[in-house]
């Protein structure tokens, strides 16, 4: 599949909180990161990074959520929510925008202000079965064309990653899932 020249690369939540010994670690985080690194040069000037952060005051269903995950209820400036390298440097060096949201899905006014109302988005990042999935469905529902690059994403487990990709494939032609970076 060839994406249009004006497509946007959206790098979802490549943050410390999803690495290492964190309860939220994506086991194939480094593999997804390598795929994203291969895509970055193709999207110079058309890349946006996103960050998931805890709300300052959880409301509604987020109250019991953070009761289950109290380690994550820290301010958004906490190192836990920092972008990992090389993405932090890429965002700074290339002056790429960073959209920060206290929600799984990143499609909203912040991302829309960067990419426009009906963009073509190339989604990568973590976690396939949470933030990538939530972003893809909301963006497609709002009229964006979405391409998800499977080998530039990582899930909570390989099984969860594959199940999320299968769900997103159900939304064709609004969402297209490609297997590898070379397919973009």
Structure description:
- The chain is an alpha/beta fold.
- Helices cover 32% and strands 20% of the residues.
- It has helices at residues 29-39, 62-68, 87-93, 109-115, 128-141, 158-169; strands spanning 8-12, 47-52, 98-101, 120-126, 145-154, 175-178.
- It has a six-stranded parallel β-sheet with strand order 3-2-1-4-5-6.
- Helix 6 (158-169) links the parallel strand 5 (145-154) and strand 6.
- Helix 5 packs parallel to helix 6.
- The protein starts with 7 loop residues before the first strand and ends in a 6-residue tail after the last strand.
The helix content, as a percent range, equals 25-40%
Task: Specify the structural class.
Answer: alpha/beta
Q: How confident overall, as mean pLDDT?
A: 96
CA radius of gyration is: 15 Å
H and E string: EHEHHEHEHEHE
Shape: globular
What's the story with the biggest beta sheet? 6 strands, parallel
Q: Give the beta-strand count.
A: 6
Unreliable spans: none
**CA distance, first residue to last residue:** 6 Å
Strand order, sheet with most strands: 3-2-1-4-5-6
Helical run tally: 6
Strand content: 15-25%
Brief account:
The chain is an alpha/beta fold and 184 residues long. It is built from six helices and six strands, in the order βαβααβαβαβαβ.
Index terms:
globular; alpha/beta; 6 strands; about 180 residues; 6-stranded parallel β-sheet
């Amino acid at each position: 599949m060839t994406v249009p020249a004006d497509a946007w690369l959206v790098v979802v939540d490549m943050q410390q909180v999803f690495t290492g010994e964190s309860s939220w670690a994506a086991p194939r985080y480094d593999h997804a990161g390598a795929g994203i690194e291969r895509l970055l040069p193709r999207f110079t000037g058309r890349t946006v990074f996103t960050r998931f952060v805890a709300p300052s005051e959880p409301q509604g269903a987020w109250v019991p959520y953070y009761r289950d995950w109290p380690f994550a209820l820290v301010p958004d400036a906490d190192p836990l929510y920092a972008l990992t390298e090389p993405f932090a440097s890429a965002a700074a060096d290339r002056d790429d925008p960073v959209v920060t949201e206290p929600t799984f899905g990143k499609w909203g006014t912040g991302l829309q202000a960067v990419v426009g109302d009906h963009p073509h988005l190339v989604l990568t990042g973590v976690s396939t079965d949470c933030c990538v999935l939530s972003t893809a469905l909301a963006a497609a529902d709002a009229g964006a064309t979405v391409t998800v690059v499977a080998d530039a994403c990582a899930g909570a487990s390989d099984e969860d990653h594959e199940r999320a990709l299968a769900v997103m494939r159900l939304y064709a032609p609004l969402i297209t899932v490609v297997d590898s970076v070379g397919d973009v």
